[in-house]
């Protein structure tokens, strides 16, 4: 958990091997001061845990779930089928198809079970953390202010460094 406050975001993944991608979601949540919890919840190896986790998420105070998965990537959709909370899916790069299989599995949800699908890998995980913070920020002004500050910092960085050449000052 990121702080002493109750977690607002659940960051879950299908396997411990997904952590090198999903840690970027956690890093963004920490940067923006959003309390979170993180754990492995496998759609295929621990389906009962998945159902219990998803069904109890709202009553535990979570406001959004970030779910990363590779390959068949059933985790985000299965979680979304068991909770009214927004679920953000992060496709984790797979060995066989470089994450395209994960992306398509998460994006091609049937109508009526929504999963917000992000980009494959690090960029997707980073943006999932940012989007989760934006959702939490709808109810928590301090988080909204942290998101605003982050975005202003990005703008400043670009404006302060307009010359793309490595040796430019």
UniProtKB/TrEMBL annotation:
Q: Which Pfam families match?
A: AIRC
Question: Taxonomically, which superkingdom?
Answer: Bacteria
Chain sites annotated for binding substrate: 15, 18, 45
UniProt keyword annotations, A-Z? Isomerase, Lyase, Purine biosynthesis
Question: What InterPro entries does the record point to?
Answer: PurE_ClassI, PurE_dom, PurE_prokaryotes
Q: Which SMART domains match?
A: AIRC (SM01001)
Q: GO terms for molecular function, please?
A: 5-(carboxyamino)imidazole ribonucleotide mutase activity; phosphoribosylaminoimidazole carboxylase activity
Q: What is the official name of this protein in its record?
A: N5-carboxyaminoimidazole ribonucleotide mutase
The scientific name of the source species is: Halomonas llamarensis
- This chain is encoded by the gene named purE
């Amino acid at each position: 958990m990121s702080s002493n406050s109750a977690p607002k975001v659940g960051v879950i993944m299908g396997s411990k091997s997904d952590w090198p991608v999903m840690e970027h979601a956690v890093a963004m949540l920490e940067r923006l001061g959003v309390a979170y919890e993180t754990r492995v919840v496998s759609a295929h190896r621990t389906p009962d845990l998945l159902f219990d986790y998803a069904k109890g998420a709202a009553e535990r105070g979570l406001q959004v779930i970030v779910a990363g998965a590779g390959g068949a990537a059933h985790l985000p959709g299965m979680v979304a089928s068991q909770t009214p909370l927004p679920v953000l899916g992060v496709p984790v790069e797979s060995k066989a198809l470089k994450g395209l299989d994960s992306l398509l599995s998460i994006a091609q949800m049937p109508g009526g079970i929504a999963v917000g699908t992000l980009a494959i890998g690090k960029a997707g995980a980073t943006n999932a953390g940012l989007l989760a913070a934006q959702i939490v920020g709808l109810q928590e002004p301090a988080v909204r202010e942290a998101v605003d500050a982050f975005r202003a910092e990005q703008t400043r960085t670009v404006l302060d460094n307009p010359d793309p050449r490595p040796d430019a000052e």
